[in-house]
Amino acid sequence: MLYSAGLRVSELVNLKAQDVNFSEKVGWVRRGKGSKDRLFSLSESLAGDLEHYLRSRQNTYMFSKTEPLTTRNIQKIIKGMREKAGIFKKVTPHTLRHSFATHLLEQGTDIRVIQALLGHSSLNTTQVYTHISTDQIKKVKNPFDSLYATKTADVIG
After folding, report:
1. Among candidates 86, 111, 96, which has minimal Cα distance to 6?
2. For the chain, what is the domain count?
3. Is residue 28 part of a domain?
4. Quick check: helix, strand or coil at residue 105?
């Protein structure tokens, strides 16, 4: 959910099962950063898996029965998964949040929507989270080409 919903690790550990609507594929961060509530979306596949997971448990918290996991627990889980996958680059819970924002931008999601999903009050903060890839830069059509083509056509025509 760190990647799928762009949650902060503190939001993930405090997420309660009752705060997720699986049929609508949305959830609520309650009292997130700045004590603000916000809506987040769940991927269809993750919503199904989480609903199945919780069906067999009586959890108060999404990933724990009575007490929330600690942020340190989540950091250790991410580190273990990274090592098991053979990934040598440092990956943190916050890296997944940045990746969520960047991938949404690459898919054409409006930056203001990304801002709302991340719970940022400032668009400038969201822009820090969205990293532009080299491929995106290579795909940009240079406006000079359009001007040059027009000028060339005028001269020849």
Report:
1. 96
2. 1
3. yes
4. helix
- Residue 114 is part of a domain; what is its CATH number? 1.10.443.10
Q: Is the CB of residue 33 less than 8 Å from the CB of residue 119?
A: yes
Rg (CA), the chain: 21
Reported as a single tens digit per residue, the pLDDT across 35-87 is: 788 999 999 988 999 888 888 887 788 888 778 889 999 999 999 999 999 99
- Could you tell me which of 16, 120, 10 has the C-alpha nearest to residue 71? 10
State pTM to two decimals. 0.77
Phi, psi of 22 (to 5 degrees): -70, -35
**Is 97 among the domain residues?**
yes
Backbone angles phi, psi at 26, to 5 degrees: -140, 160
Cα separation, 48 vs 39, in Å, equals: 18
Which residues does the annotation mark as catalytic? 8, 33, 94, 97, 120, 129
Domain span at residue 91 reads: 9-156
Residue 2 lies inside a defined structural domain of this protein? no
For 81-93, write each residue's pLDDT tens digit.
999 999 999 999 9
Cα dist from 157 to 149, 151, 154, whole Å: 12, 10, 5
Indicate whether 81 belongs to any domain: yes
